[in-house]
Amino acid sequence: MQEEVARPPVEEQATAEPAPPRQPAPAPAPDVAVDVDIVVVEAPRFGKPGPPMRRSPLIIGLTAGLGLLLAYSAYLAVQNVRSILMLIFIAMFLAIGLNPAVVRLTKWGVPRGLAVAAVGIGSMLLLCGGIFALIPPLVQQTGELVENLPGYIDNLRRNDQLNKLNEDYQLLDQLKHVATAGNVTKALGGVWGGVQVAFSALFNILTVVVLTLYFMAAFNRLKEGGYRLVPASRRERVRLLGDEILTKVGAYLGGALAIAVVAGLSSFVFLLIVGVAYPYALAVLVAITDLIPQIGATIGAVVVSVVGFATSIKVGIACVIFFIIYQQVENYLIYPNVMRRAVKVTDLAAILSVLLGVALLGVVGALIAIPVVAAVQLIVREVVIPRQDSR
How many CB atoms lie within 10 A of CB 282? Predict the structure, then answer.
């Protein structure tokens, strides 16, 4: 048998990758002392509170009562300062109406301060002229009426029916006994009452004049300040609408003043020609009543025609004919040309606005009725209707 020869083992050359180097062990973190405050919450003595009573009838009633109380307090405050607010309102409208004249002067190179002063002085001169034209004839004729009132009562005895009533009930005798100068003066408040009325009217006029001058001087600053109260996202549109409203309202008020001046001047010339007493005062009355839309010119014409008939029948007929012709010229020639850039309001809207204005604010409401309606009409046309159409 052959012996197997043992062969030495062949060493396999391993091609193993070298082991990665050992990372050093991280150093142990130092011990940090943490202070913990332990708060012991005691249980409520009277139990755990319930949820807030947001919809409790008591809270709702109390909130509503406080709201009503605040609303009533605000109402009383407005009532107490109503006369002052009315003066401020009138001054604002006058400033809006006179601002186009100021703008026109500034375009001609006049500084705004001088333009405001010139417009203000001119307006005050017209106002003073109107006051001095109306007050002396009014005082004189009122005094003559009071003195001659007993004689007018005696003339009523010529009527047979009135004379018979006087014999049965002594109506005219009692009326003559009451209608004396002293009793009429007492009925009107006496001398002191007349002085108070005069000073109150003078104070109101001066207040309106001063406020109007301030509003005209700070017109642009006040306007921009009002626009800045609007959010920036809507400011540009509000500025465009506001400028359009101010332009239209200012053009209307300025045009109304111009038409009133034309009516007063033409009436003054006519009354001088026909020889009616107190032509200047009646012309100022015509100019003032012509400011009232729709019915103002008719009121002035009726008053002047009555005075004309008191002068003579021919003068009265001449007054009626003159005012009929003048109103046609004003309605179809003067008004369209002057109000070309002003507001456009339908006749029905104008009449309704005047009636509502008279009911709310009297004569002032009648004067500002059409500008307010024009502003509302513009807002409805440019804001409300497009929003409704987009839905």
Answer: 25
Convert the pLDDT of each residue in 29-60 to its tens digit. Answer: 555 555 555 655 666 677 777 666 566 677 77
Q: Is-contact 294 370, C-beta < 8 A?
A: no
Is the Cβ–Cβ distance between 353 and 365 less than 8 Å?
A: no
CB 293 within 8 A of CB 366: yes
Burial class for 140, CB neighbours closer than 10 Å (0-12, 13-18, 19+): exposed
Q: Are 364 and 86 in contact (CB under 8 A)?
A: yes
DSSP state of 156: G
How far does Cα 210 stand from its chain's mean position? 17
**Residues 53-62 as b or e (16 or more Cβ within 10 Å = b):** eeeeeeeeee
Q: Which two tokens stand for residue 303?
A: 């008053």
Cα separations in angstroms, 316 against 33, 128, 276, 279, 323: 113, 29, 10, 14, 11
**pLDDT digit string, tens, across residues 297-343:** 888 898 888 888 877 888 889 999 999 999 888 888 877 777 666 66
Extract the tokens encoding 356: 């509502």
> What is the token pair recorded at 328?
């046609």
Contact present, 319 and 308 (Cβ < 8 Å): yes
How far is CA 91 from each of CA 94, 98, 213, rounded to the nearest angstrom? 5, 10, 8
**Please, are residues 260 and 291 in contact by the beta-carbon 8 Å criterion?**
yes
Residues 6+ apart with CB under 8 A from 102: 112, 115, 116, 119, 216, 219
Confidence label for 14 from pLDDT (cuts 50, 70 and 90): very low
Distance of CA 98 to the CA centre of its chain: 15
Give the 3-state secondary structure of residue 191: helix
Please tell me the distance from the alpha carbon of residue 279 to that of residue 265, in angstroms, as a whole number: 10
Question: What are the φ/ψ torsions at residue 340 (nearest 5 degrees)?
Answer: -65, -40
Rounded to 5°, the CA angle 222-117-283 comes to 105
Cβ contact 286:308 at 8 Å: no
